[in-house]
Design brief:
- The protein is α/β, with parallel strands linked by helices.
- It has 11 helices and 20 strands.
- Strands 1, 2, 3, 4, 5, 6 and 15 form a 7-stranded mixed beta sheet that branches. Strands 7-14-8-9-10 form a 5-stranded parallel beta sheet, covered by helices on one side. A 5-stranded antiparallel beta sheet has the order 16-17-20-19-18, sandwiched between helices.
- α3 packs antiparallel against α4 (78-101).
- The chain starts with a strand and ends in a 16-residue tail after the last helix.
- The model has no long low-confidence stretch (mean pLDDT 96).
- The protein binds flavin-adenine dinucleotide.
- Flavin-adenine dinucleotide binds at residues 9-15, 32-35, 39-41, 45-46, 49, 112-113, 137-139, 158, 179, 266, 269-270, 303-305, 310-313, 315, 345.
């Protein structure tokens, strides 16, 4: 039996970060993984999906160039699109595997881990590891509902989609979350006949009705969209038949079906019962989000495994916090969490930041249909809303579905994280003409509603096209 300070289960973004930080803090470590194939991000997540979106954006730019009086013909070579995607993806994944290969001798241990008790793990090869503290960083997997069994041969998930040599002629996407919407739009722009289905009426998990309406309009322009729809699937030879009912009803046959209905954490095979940890109704250990500790046990959890903030920068931040605290267990450090922040890389993108509802909140908004730089670029659509405390106009959150929302979202997230007020942000320089200028009307509305005095030097006018 190996005996050491910190055992980390899962060599993804969170686990690698936890191992590095625990070792830097002086702990002896092992990092256990079934495959060491590199991270979800590099292999089947962030990077290949953005590579597909980049190809789709190139096709879309050519197609809409005539808006500017520029005429071009185009042909999509799907095999070349997928070949470039895999070639780039493989180099990102290889870089991650190189990091893993550079780990000191004895740190890397291959096998599937399960708990025998709170601090003892058994690996699939029979080896046992005992540690003073354990970090669970096992990630998540695509959920495929039982009802999809009859069309098993047509199903794609993020684990298989990027391996396609050619694109299908028709694709049903089930699930209007970030993953489903990003890939549906990209596939549609690459010439695939896409239909997207979701039982919920609001796309992308957005709760704001006006932004949801903008999103529905934008996506329905590009592919066949069925929100609020219940579906039934059946095999149709080697293809899949989908029958839907809801706001509309119908039936259609598809070559392939991308199932994007959620990614539950990889916890079921860890034998968590042996740890005595308190689990919530989903079977996820109850943990403190500022220490990542599960109860008062020597077990920590990080990344998608906790299903709390399943995005990459959080997996890395949580991994380092969990690794640090595991190395120093039972002493622990608390770390204030950064503002919740997620981006869906559609066009326009959706950025969601911080708290967007609450007692004593006010809101300012900008309609990007009338925003100067967005009009210049013929992409004037969407809406942003910024939320602030009514008493002092301190920024609390934002929802943006507008051109440049991925970058504007960062600016707002950084200001919200720093505790800035709307008046303070208005004192910053805004270059002209930019999409950033679109933040100003929303910030001014907040100041007016909070009756906060903006500097008397702040001109309330706007330059042409701002
Ligand atoms: C298609 C897609 C697109 C995405 N795009 C973005 C994006 O643009 N931006 C963003 O911020 N986030 C994005 N994400 C989310 C992001 O990829 C994840 O939040 C992040 O990769 C999670 O990292 P992790 O370390 O928690 O898990 P992983 O990287 O999945 O690592 C978990 C590891 O644990 C191992 N493991 C599991 N169980 C065991 C066990 N019992 N024993 C041993 N090892 C085990 C697995 O083999 C795996 O190596 C995307 C995700 C997907 C699927």
């Amino acid at each position: 039996m190996k005996i050491l300070d910190v055992a980390i289960i899962g060599a993804g973004t969170a686990g690698l970060s936890a191992e590095r930080v625990a070792r830097s803090a002086g702990a002896s470590t092992v990092l256990v993984d079934e495959q060491f194939r590199g991270t979800t991000c590099a292999n089947v997540g962030c990077m290949p999906s953005k590579l597909l979106i980049a190809a789709a954006a190139a096709a879309h730019s050519v197609r809409r160039a005539s808006t500017f009086g520029v005429f071009a013909t185009h042909r999509i070579d799907a095999a070349a699109v997928m070949a470039r995607l895999r070639q780039q993806r493989d180099s990102f994944a290889a870089a991650t595997r190189e990091q893993i290969a550079r780990l000191p001798d004895g740190v890397r241990v291959r096998g599937k881990a399960r708990f025998l008790d709170t601090t003892t793990l058994e690996l699939s090869g029979g080896e046992r590891v005992r540690a003073r503290a354990v970090v669970i960083a096992t990630g998540a997997h695509p959920s495929i509902p039982e009802s999809f069994a009859p069309i098993r041969n047509c199903i794609l998930t993020n684990e298989t989609l990027f391996e396609l040599a050619q694109l299908p002629e028709s694709l049903a996407v089930v699930g209007a979350g970030p993953l489903g919407l990003e890939l549906a739009q990209a596939m549609a722009r690459l010439g695939v006949a896409v239909s997207l289905f979701d039982q919920k009426a609001a796309p992308g998990g957005i709760e704001d009705a006006a932004i949801a309406a903008c999103m529905r309009e934008a996506f329905a322009n590009e592919f066949d969209l069925h929100l609020g729809a219940r579906i039934q699937v059946a095999a149709a030879g080697d293809r899949a038949s989908i029958r839907w009912e809801g706001d509309s009803s119908g039936a259609r046959i598809f070559d392939r079906v991308l199932v994007a209905v959620g990614r539950p954490p990889n916890l079921a095979e860890l034998n968590l019962e042996a740890t005595g940890l308190r689990l919530d109704e989903r079977g996820i250990p109850v943990f403190d989000c500022e220490t990542l500790q599960c109860g008062d046990s020597p077990v920590f959890i990080a990344g998608d495994a906790s299903a709390d903030r399943p995005v990459l920068h959080e997996a890395q931040a949580e991994g380092s916090m969990a690794g640090f605290n595991a190395a120093r267990f039972p002493a622990e450090t608390r770390r204030r969490r950064s503002v919740p922040f997620s981006i869906m890389f559609t066009d326009p993108p959706l950025a969601l930041i911080g708290q967007r509802s609450g007692a004593g909140f006010i809101c300012g908004e900008t309609d990007y249909r009338d925003q100067g730089r967005a009009k210049v670029e013929a992409r004037a659509r969407g809406l942003l809303k910024i939320y602030a405390a009514a008493h002092d106009a301190a920024l609390k959150g934002a929802a943006l579905f507008c051109p440049g929302a991925d970058h504007l979202g960062h600016l707002l997230a950084w200001q919200i994280n720093a505790g800035a007020t709307a008046a303070a942000v208005l004192e910053q320089p805004f270059y002209h003409p930019t999409l950033e200028e679109g933040l100003k009307p929303a910030l001014r509305q907040i100041c007016a509603r909070a009756q906060v005095r903006v500097s008397p030097l702040e001109d309330s006018g706007s330059p042409s096209g701002a």
